[in-house]
Each structure stands twice: as C-alpha cells, then as structure tokens.
Specification:
This protein is an alpha+beta fold and 119 residues long. The chain is 31% helix and 45% strand. Strands 2-1-6-5-4-3 form a six-stranded mixed sheet. The protein is globular and about 40 Å long.
C-alpha cells in the first residue's frame, strides 16, 4: 500500500456524496473485497460504501486522517487513522487497519481495530 493508496482510502471514508463514495469504493476494492471491524463484517462494494455512510452518520462533520503508523510489505499494509473535527489536535477516535492487496494494488481485505472510541 502506497501513500497515494492510503490517501485515496481515507478520502473514500471522508466522501459525503453517495455517488462519489460508491465510485471511490469501486476503484479501491475488488468486487468481492471485504471490510471487517468490531462493528461491521461486510463484503462487496455496496456493503462497504454503506458501512462508510453509517460511520459518517454516527460522526457527522468529522474527518478521517492518517495516524502515525504506516508500514507495508508483500501484499499487506498496516496503518493507524484518526477521526476528529477538521483541524482538531486531539482525535476523538483512533483505529488501526490491516489491509491485504491484490498484485494490482486494489484492496482485497481490510481488518480494522478500534483503539479509542468517543465517550
């Protein structure tokens, strides 16, 4: 996973327009790609886009940004992300995602962990 792919991944999570979000998910994930975290376990573009929309509904106005950890080898990458109001210095949520990629660089699988939750 390159920095560009990570930026596109986070942009998909921040995309509020449903059509643009669906396109971003389709561009990033394989058709049978999966997303699993403590709150979701889904497969396919439509379901992944729905999970993203659900997260945006739970945390309106907040944005996902890259955290401090980013490392990749072979077809696997791991990184942290933050969720906060734009420009905030302290995230209200922090997560850790592990991503498996195809040889072409598309996402086949995401396994997410939630390290810090609001409240």
């Amino acid at each position: 996973m390159t920095n560009d792919l990570l930026a596109r991944y986070l942009a998909a999570w921040n995309e509020t327009d449903a059509d643009a979000r669906a396109k971003a998910v389709a561009d990033l994930w394989t058709e049978d790609g999966t997303y699993t975290d403590p709150l979701a376990d889904v497969a396919g573009h439509e379901a992944i886009a729905a999970v993203i929309a659900g997260a945006q509904g739970m945390f309106p106005g907040l944005v996902f940004t890259a955290g401090q950890v980013f490392e990749a080898h072979h077809d696997v990458a791991r990184f942290t992300w933050h969720l906060a109001p734009e420009g905030a210095t302290e995230p209200i949520a922090i997560g850790f995602d592990v991503v498996r990629l195809t040889p072409e660089g598309r996402i086949r699988e995401v396994i997410g962990f939630l390290d810090k939750l609001p409240g």
